[in-house]
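User: Fold both of these, please.

Assistant: Here is the first one.
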Amino acid sequence: MTFYLILIVLYLKIMKRDDIMSYLLKIENLGKSFTLHNLHKHIKSCEGINIELKEAEFIGITGRSGSGKSTILKCIYRTYLPEGGDIWYSSKKFGLINISKATEREIIHLRKYEIGYVSQFLNVMPRTTAKQIVERAVLEMGFDLEYASTQAEKMLLHFELGRDLWDSYPNTFSGGEKLRLNIAKAMVKRPRLLLLDEPTASLDSVSKAKVRVLIQQLKGEGTTMLGIFHDIDFMEGLCDKIYNMEAGELI
């Protein structure tokens, strides 16, 4: 009897693994909360989140500010450590890996080679020029400086960051210029999975169109994307599925 139970358990595990591996990313019952010790408060950010993403699929998430949207992306990127649930990712190097329980070394590798993140804010080393920022993103993937320089120039030109800005430091840039540079830095790597946290928040209509063109190009090349947007018009015809976030739960 025990032998048959073991076989059943093994069979169910294999079936579950096969089901998970049919997706590039599968989130199961993800939960995250924060404790504000100075205010003696415990705040639930997200709870019971379930999302399935196949290769080259683009899922959009909408919702009010503070509803927990960004927390989902930060848990996937492991900026936040999830409290509950699993984040299964089909890695090119590691095979099926649970990001919720991955080691720091594994996370560093995934960020460098497989998973990109675009936030509303640009965090870079001081005294690094705009061109160097994009070049370094390519160099850390193992390419030489000549190739990195060529790719950086193409990306900067696409986002209409003028040549006069290439050797300037981003702390002198406008908000829109910083955001375009941030998007260029993430997209130049052509990641397998790209996380977009309000990538068009402070952009004008022309710059939004540039982002849209590149998203469509990446999607056509096989990049899988999960994005947060307030601009519903931007998402129209771009996302394969759209979820709405309310009080930490996906609707």
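And the second sequence with its predicted structure:
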Amino acid sequence: MSTLFTPGSVGKLHTPNRVVMAPMTRSRSTQPGDVPNAMNAEYYAQRASAAFIVTEATQISPQGKGYSFTPGIYSDEQVAGWRLVTDAVHAAGGRIFLQLWHVGRMSHPDFHHGELPVAPSAIPFDGSIWKVDPSTGVGSMVECPTPRALSRDEIHDVINDFRKAARNAMAAGFDGVEVHGANGYLIDQFMRTTSNVRTDEYGGSRENRLRFLKEVMDAVIDEVGADRTAIRVAPFLTARGMACPDILPTILEAATYLQAQGIAYLHLVEADWDDAPKFPEEFRQAVRERFRNAIVVAGKYDLELADWVLSKGYADFVAFGRKFVANPDLPLRLEKGYPLAGLEGAELFGGTARGYSDFPAWSKQG
């Protein structure tokens, strides 16, 4: 039997397999208010056979928003909406982590009453976000402006927003939280020399560029416990103005700190575009030397590559994204060798149940 289908553990949770549902923005929250809803609950519950689910990225505050129709975790209505989701997933026997998100500069003034998005530094960059035109209801990719730099006091406010969001996640019934430190969003922006040129204690040296990550993680751990806390990072990201020459040693230093804190898992995003660089095996080894708790990897994994990364000990879980969208019972299909349904990308962002919760399980196909 493939290791992928053997039981695992993450924090204090025991999992029936090692097939994780990766976080994927789907932009289907109820408006106004970015509130999760019954359709979201059905979607996630359909996929409860995963080792555990990581939800779509969820903004910790209005300031943290960067895309249309993405859910939040800062209002009472949002907490109640997410409770629908966690209740449905748990009733189906599943486990679910909420991904906590602040986009930083990956945003647009239209989300902030005309104010500029925030970042470690006011640097122009090449990045776009998905935004719906309120006059037409049609979404499209829109360029991000040059952001403004956060003050020290504002940085501390954001850290407190992460703390409150983690608290709200527990109130909503989640099994844990995954801090989004990847893909060019705020925590990632602080780590990289290309997006952080601050001259105070949050910029410059590797230690200073990691300070924000550490203070966020300390706040979340203090609120919900290390065994319910995780983080996602993207070592080889170069898009969105993030090609930092010091990012690999910075992330390795972060891994040492995260192991000392005893967090539940470290989630590594591997480049998943066609001509992306491969994750060097030396880097996988270096991460594992520093981080002994659970490691989740995500990228263009198939069964063969998943077996390889697990057998080498470089990871304990493998996350699947688009495969899980079209195949709600993905662990079963992978284990039994059943054909996988395909995915049409036109309905990934926004819309109705079509292309979202209408994919049948294998046993229900006509």
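The chain has a mean pLDDT of 96.
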